[in-house]
Amino acid sequence: MQFSRLDLTSFVAAGILFVLTCANAKPNLIKTCRQGSRECFKESLQATVPGFTKGIPELGIEVLDPFIVDNLNLTLPGDLRINFKDGVATGFRNCIIDKARIVKDILEVQLHCNLTIKGKYRSSGSLLIFPIDGEGDSTIKCRNIKFMAFFKLGSRMENGQKYVVIKSLKVDHRFDGNVFYQLTNLFKNSPEMSKLVLDFMNRNWKMVAEEFGKPIVDYGVAAILKNIKMLLKNMPEKELSPVPLNL
Ligand SMILES: *[C@@H]1O[C@H](CO)[C@@H](O)[C@H](O)[C@H]1NC(C)=O
Ligand SMILES: *[C@@H]1O[C@H](CO)[C@@H](O)[C@H](O)[C@H]1NC(C)=O
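A: This is the predicted complex of the input protein with 2-acetamido-2-deoxy-beta-D-glucopyranose.
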């Protein structure tokens, strides 16, 4: 039987969905997607999000929501050094997939999320024009942060089984909603200065996010990628997809 590329992608999504939900609804899911459409692929992928972000220990997939960030050191532009501890990021499970398709060997996925990162921070260096020396609690809320990801896919053989691999990934992000910063004690022992700079950050949230956001976003993307790779490493293509992919 011949299936078009779109049908194949739907099968993949349905397969992943089946595994992630561990439901016994496999025939229904595949049937739903047998007609094959981009809408169907997108919806299948969307349906995998809660299961995937909850973590799948059998497959080595970590919990991504809540995602624990413990002891992360970042050097942000302008030599602002941040140590982030006891951190937790939430919201990945509610990400909304806006677009998903496979063209040749490129999987393109666009999604947007509301993410909240909380934790204890320590900072030194300078933030924009302000010399910073702070230590306190932080909460950063990103509303409608948008990700545009392009996965270049390939395949590998192991013990006679074919597996899908990610050859490269390009991710762009954009802040569509606003970013809200709540940091206590930006300047040790100077509540006035702390408030002044915090107000400045919130008034200029976009500039601050664009200037400093990338290392944090990259960190989150790396964590998600690691877990997608784990999924692909532990699940042969034939379990992802009932029909072979042309990768
Ligand atoms: C981050 O930097 C602090 C202070 O320099 C250090 O104590 C800590 O071990 C570092 N953490 C990591 C994960 O490198
Ligand atoms: C994010 O929150 C805003 C405002 O509460 C809401 O309109 C939007 O739909 C949310 N987006 C997601 C991806 O949940």
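The longest strand covers residues 130-158. The CA atoms of residues 81 and 131 lie 11 Å apart.
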